[in-house]
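[09:14] KT: can someone run the structure on this one? pasting the chain below
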Amino acid sequence: MKTDLLAGRHIGINEQDTELMLQKIGVSSVDELIEKTIPSNILLPEPLSLPPAMTEHEYGQHIAALAAKNKVYATYIGMGWYNTIAPAVIVRNVFQNPVWYTSYTPYQAEVSQGRLEALMNFQTAVADLTALPLTNSSLLDEATAAAEAVAMMFALRSRAQQKSGANVVLVDAEIFPQTLAVMTTRAIPQGIELRIGNYREFEFTPDVFACMVQYPNANGEVEAYRELAERAHAADCKIAVAADILSLALLVPPGEWGADIAFGSTQRLGIPLFYGGPSAGYFATREEFKRNVPGRIIGLSLDKYGKRCYRMALQTREQHIKREKATSNICTAQALLATMAGFYAVYHGQEGLTTIAARIHSIAAFLEKSLKKLGYTQLNRYYFDTLRFALPDNVSPQQVHTIALSKEVNLRYFDNGQVGLSIDETTDIAAVNLLISIFAIAAGCDVQKVDDVPLKSTIGEKLKRQSAFLTHEVFTKYHTETELMRYIKRLDRKDISLAQSMISLGSCTMKLNAAAELLPLTLPGLANLHPLVPMDQAEGYQQMINSLCSDLNTLTGFAGTSLQPNSGANGEYAGLRVIGSYLESIGQGHRNKVIIPESAHGTNPASAIQAGFTTITCACDAFGNVDMNDLRAKAEEHRDDLAALMITYPSTHGIFETEIVEICRIIHDCGAQVYMDGANMNAQVGLTNPGFIGADVCHLNLHKTFAIPHGGGGPGVGPICVAEHLVPFLPGHFLFGDDHNEVSSAPYGSAGVATITYGYIRMMGIEGLTKATQTAILSANYLAACLKDTYGIVYRGANGFVGHEMILECRNVFAETGISENDIAKRLMDYGYHAPTLSFPVHGTLMIEPTESESLSELTNFVEVMQSIWEEIQEVKRGEADKADNVLVNAPHPEYEVVGNEWTHSYSREKAAYPIESVRQNKFWVNVARIDNTLGDRKLQPTQYGDFCPCS
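[09:31] RB: done, structure tokens below
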């Protein structure tokens, strides 16, 4: 092992392990395994060319130097991004804690109670601040939330509106440009018209089904929208509002003046700027719309013994079940950032948030008064944090701009010559004096320094919040660092993450997220840069972004990359919009059909529908491959209208299909494009790539293949890589003067965490990346060889091998014993493991992906665990264990049950809690018994104020 390179630390299998594993698999070398696994006609003939691998130490110096090239000025641009003070206790114990950042989306609620509670705190804070009772556990960003609000209101049209074809949303002109751009991208393919105008002049004609405003608006003005809401409702229209979450500590919340939906960003709740992202979008609405809410909702329920617990509610809305009928294509959200924002609310409480908001507003009011004395005219009658000034006749915008830059200050400059500034949590008295001096110098005036800013409110009485918020005890108990630290620790002890054991989730690639990749994120030059600063202030980020895009082009075999999509599903959508734009440009805009294999991720059909396409499902054969006869027939039938094929490779069935090149040819012969879903790119990197295979576009999941942590359900990054002819149609941004196909608020999406992938590639190099891919395939085939004689493997490739994952057969077990795949998943928790992917893509099975990061000892232990569970199943089959009372159907066994005075089971406590020796050495105690999913859906309770009476 080369200890100075990351590959030696990242890859869990050494040379001695490799020999043992090859023997078990039945091949003589890794090269032989790869040749028998991947079709020979798609293997790259030569190694790809990337810069040489850096050592961890070299990379640390390199990324610090890049961060130093970014000029972190005092920035008052605002427009949706604001400097914050991230509490060190949260940064240290959550953001930098692998228990929080390496955990997966909490589908398996019994081993996710900590982050579920943290996300429930987030939902409760959002519900309180907006005065709307139902919130989800985050969206990708504010602009995405706006687009989702439009889609939801469209789905909620009355029957009369649907019958008449009502398709217009009235949008106030004073909304952030990035929000409008993303809404436009998403509205066009749905046939929705965004009619822009002054909200005071909105006319609710029969073709209108909703309206949207911003609060405070894009200029910083706080408007009273109660009358607008009344007019909208009188016309049977919904009203949505983009609301500054921190301002709601002082302003009348949207739920109190009639809004149906409030959305926005929670970046102001202690999340660094990160050059635009990631941060958690929020979405709040009325309870009657619960079946239409996008994203994930955390709700309360009870376990089998009546203990209160948390779970993801209403999961039937998930894309893997509803596919093309899904409410949204959202899969990954921003769970880690939502968790941090929730803890920020817990740490500060109502009094703390009110104090922060009042201080910000007071500074704004003081600056208004001070600059008015210098001859400047402030144009916002009521405001929270943002001022907009008309300049005196003797002052030009260029003067202000030049003076501000000389003092390393960024202000907002309007096209009409006015100047704006937005105050934030970090603005102190020194910053106040500096701001006053800039405007004083421009006006040719002398001013005296001030020592303090008095608390003052200029907000109109009818706009002031009167209602209490954050009244639940969780927001009152943890205001000291000691108490919050212990609370965070109590929660993280309830969750299984990579810090505990392997997470073998198929199609999720839960690999190592190396500390050397993550540590630089808190460097001020990376954490504290506003996304709208001039390019010459972001030289380090620009260099990193350009290099990363170049590397991704090389690895995918494509010509262009956009980092803007901030999730895999958003990448799918962006890629499809790129295809649509290209087809329109060549006079083929009528092509509106997309073929999708039945094995595809559920987000594929959901994204296609949202992008304005009609989906056609292609069958798979008995071996898990695309049914070539069905593909040919459907391609030919729809050839004149066919826009694209969406295909995952290797397939979601875990195999490299031998006909992939022919599949691409068939689609291209019809004049359509090939979209390759990059969910399984961890089996391609360095060995083959989408461009070489023949695809036209792919998205990548940087939170899978390229080492960004999953964070309990986000952040994710889903860049799209495209062939030369598609490059002109990649997402733009208003900052660049071209917002076509814009899909996220920030120009580069979640640029802050893209640095993780940059570090991964820089430290692995092409040799390390290729070896990682080979090892992922090796480890999967090793597990398949170990488990084939008990459970059995559902699908194998042409030569009898799997790709980087495999589907474990459990259907026979259920038929013979009544033990389901869900029982096996829950029993794994007693052994200290998170369940594999459950019943996807084949119902009644488990899909396992070990990744390259796990050691042979961990793989061996997992095999021992699975074989031990197999024996427990056989005990039921042989009649040695009660079918109704056994360790599987009763799993998991929580600590409180095992140590309780009563034990009524037909098996011992030891068998329940310590089935094998390795569990004794590393016991993970589950906090709750099996959770009642039906109760949690039947009686949705999405905030901490909810409860269940004993009779429920």
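[09:33] KT: thanks! The chain has 33 helices and 25 strands.
[09:34] RB: yep, looked fine to me
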